[in-house]
Amino acid sequence: MSMTTRTERQPAGTHAADSHDLIRVHGARENNLKDVSIEIPKRRLTVFTGVSGSGKSSLVFDTIAAESQRLINETYSAFLQGFMPTLARPEVDVLDGLTTAITVDQQRMGSDPRSTVGTATDANAMLRILFSRLGTPHIGPPAAYSFNVASVSASGGFTVDRGTDRTRTEKVSFSRTGGMCTHCEGRGTVSDIDLTQLFDDSKSLSEDPFTIPTYTGDGWVVRVITESGFFDKDKPIREYTKKERHDFLHREPTKVKINGVNLTYEGLIPKIQKSFLSKDRESMQPHIRAFVDRAVTFAECPECDGTRLSALARSSRIGELNIADACAMEIRDLAAWVRGLEEPSVTPLLAKLQHTLDSFVEIGLGYLSLDRASGTLSGGEAQRTKMIRHLGSSLTDVTYVFDEPSIGLHPHDIQRMNDLLLRLRDKGNTVLVVEHKPETIAIADHVVDLGPGAGTAGGAVCFEGTVDGLRASGTVTGRHLDDRAGLKETVREATGALEIRGANANNLQDVDVDLPLGVLCVVTGVAGSGKSSLVHGCLPAEGVVSVDQAPIRGSRRSNPATYTGLLDSVRKAFAKANGVKPALFSANSEGACPTCNGAGVLYTDLAIMQSVATTCEDCGGRRFDASVLEYRFGGRDISEVLAMSVTEAEEFFREGESRIPAAHRIVERMADVGLGYLTLGQPLTTLSGGERQRLKLAVHMADKGGVYVLDEPTTGLHLADVEQLLGLLDRLVDSGKSVIVIEHHQAVMAHADWIVDLGPGAGHDGGRVVFEGTPADLVAARSTLTGEHLAQYVGA
Questions:
Q1: Residue 732, exposed/middle/buried by CB under 10 A (0-12, 13-18, 19+)?
Q2: Gap between the Cα atoms of 206 and 211, Å rounded
Q3: How far is it, in rounded angstroms, from Cα 698 to Cα 710?
Q4: pTM
Q5: How far apart are CA 534 and CA 537, in angstroms?
Q6: For 236-281, how does the pLDDT look when each residue is reduced to its tens digit (9 = 90+)?
Q7: Which residues of 19-59 form beta strands (DSSP E)?
Q8: CA pair distance 420, 362, nearest whole angstrom
Q9: Per its record, what are the GO molecular function terms (predicted)?
Q10: Are 669 and 708 in contact (CB under 8 A)?
Q11: Which H/E stretch holds residue 751?
Q12: For 548-576, b where at least 16 C-beta lie within 10 A, e where not — what string?
């Protein structure tokens, strides 16, 4: 008799595996979160809202996404984990129901000069394979079309030992065909160094002739040159012989002995190229960057015409195009060209390449070209470029995490982005979005509103539920969700104009336009229409203060006090009041706690396990030596001053014995841009993208210049903060400044005195001025995409 047991099939929807439909977070305390406990539905679109600094990123990125990544890393062997970054477990009691998280953030793509849109998305790799199969004449494998691979060849011999008295020499040769232009080494540009900015040739080496940062008279760099033995130390540089001048400027690395120490001497030009020009300009210290800007000019490579590719790589064609031509085309035009290729032997490759290029067009980036340097993309463009590889993915039950995907998008493009988010959700994925724009909040299945304030006043969940529930909730976000700025009844009259004539940078088509002075002028248009090319590329540098989207850099030792220069005046005031050195009041200098070296915490490296950070017991996290904390100014020690919020500091530095006018001006500007809740000593690494942008604005407000150029200052701003920003812009104009703003936000457009609208489309479909006039005239005409959306916004 059979003993087989038959299991009854469970009714649909009651299987145990189907019960895991929530991501549960309990007791989250990362950064400013205050024991946050929420449940997020899976396979739904959840939008996280709240004022800037309320804890949205701390919850979504630093807690949920970070723990998902850490748990995935733990599935690898200890050997592999040794090669991976060690991730600390977030400050949270329970995280349950997590799935694999794919983070698409606003971080700009690497600004390595060899990185392009094509290399970052693998489109270039597919094009190289395509040309290596179909290109005529055939010049070699895919590497022959790569500007990152140089052509090399070598030959020689090696000895083979076959036992006692049995050796023989065998000849070997090696060659590799690459596509790199040898003149510019695949960079597309060549640098020309102005020698007059490096040294004074009327002086000798003994007279300290160098004007290069770090090249001081008694430093080792100069000693190697002076004592190398190649030059007469007392002979003026301009009197060097031809050989001496070559050794001074271009000599190959050569071993020299100075005071018994073996060192390497190298010519000045290659040494500067290695030490200065190989680095990303934005990562340089200000004085180094100023030197590079002063001494070095970059021009298009004359050998490859900026294509980065060798003549051999450019000689191979498919039809009329070589690979350089293909990469220089706008992606939407390249997609049409690829669609016209019919070759059965490469059908799978063509299908994949076609899908990648179509994804660019679908996501609104069809105006880019594959040879565009990835470091020149805006934060919004970089984020959408990272989305490309996920659009056609067959993966489901993945958690996609987006950080303000609407940044850099014209209202016309936001609907397209919303459709993409909904498509990802409808494939069975969980989509988490940090967002401020009401157009994106409106499509949410579930909303989590954090607040009620920012910094220490935030970090709590104010509302969970539907969009309609949020509107009725009475939270800051709920109250402002339907806010709409109205058109101004009267606009300011211009006091002059900045004339731009024949502008043709990038996609601009001989644009002639007058940007009015003495008013709030907004430059708008769809993404890729030429706004940044017109404003940043064509305005004179003199008298113009430009606040662009480049991120501010800083380690965990940097904070608002150090970044803004506030700490300099505070240290001097402490030193003067106590009769000691200012260096004592720096946690990065003599005043640092000797145990933690001024970090405030001690880090214990546990190899493949997460590093453990513990508060320093000696200083209690205050970062300063105990003896320094005995000195007081205005009744406070230096650690207590750094623990103040900007609002408290504004009152502290205003009057009385703690009055410091220079410090008060700085905190006043920080309060003006809406950063009153930040503490002076808060590490820059904990600030959100919007907070960093506004901190940068606060610093630049002190610059001397009559014209302020702001690039999307609403980035990262909550609906409630936009009104404060408009007030700040008004105050700047009323103080006699001219303000030019590149912006997509309709509230800023409605508040403008004058609008310049570029378009009508992106790329080669843009680059023209399609409207100039007041916002009221733009709404009345409705002749452009911007006019239509602005009219809809103001209810006209």
A1: middle
A2: 14
A3: 12
A4: 0.79
A5: 6
A6: 888 888 888 888 888 888 888 887 788 888 888 888 887 777 666 6
A7: 22-28, 36-41, 45-49
A8: 9
A9: ATP binding; ATP hydrolysis activity; DNA binding; nuclease activity
A10: no
A11: helix 746-751
A12: bbbeeebeebbbbbbbbebbbbbbebbbe
**Which among 659, 699, 656, 654 has a CA at the least distance from the CA of 675?**
699
Question: How do 321-322 and 317-318 pair as beta strands?
Answer: antiparallel
In whole angstroms, give the CA distance from residue 143 to residue 743.
42
Q: Is the peptide bond before 452 cis (omega within 30 degrees of 0)?
A: yes
> Which residues, at least 6 apart from 609, have a Cβ–Cβ distance to it below 8 Å?
86
Q: 422 has which bridge partners?
A: none
Tokens at 648, concatenated:
């408290």
Kindly report whether the peptide bond that precedes residue 411 is cis, defined as omega within 30 degrees of 0: no
How far, in Å, CA of 447 to CA of 481, rounded?
12
Q: What is the pLDDT of residues 487-513, one digit of tens each?
A: 888 999 999 888 899 988 778 889 999
The torsion angles phi and psi of 533, rounded to 5 degrees, stand at -60, -40
Q: Whose structure tokens read 């003599």?
A: 590
Question: Encoding tokens for residue 222?
Answer: 């100069």
Residue 657: count of CB within 10 angstroms of its CB: 8
Q: In angstroms, rounded to a whole number, what is the distance separating the alpha carbons of residues 170 and 149?
A: 28
Identity of the residue numbered 668: E
pLDDT of residue 287: 72
What DSSP character marks residue 276? I
In whole angstroms, what is the distance from residue 179 CA to residue 146 CA?
A: 5
Both structure tokens of 371: 């040879």
The single residue listed with the structure tokens 């790799």 is 125
**Is residue 592 classed exposed, middle or buried when 0-12, 13-18 and 19+ CB atoms within 10 A define those classes?**
buried
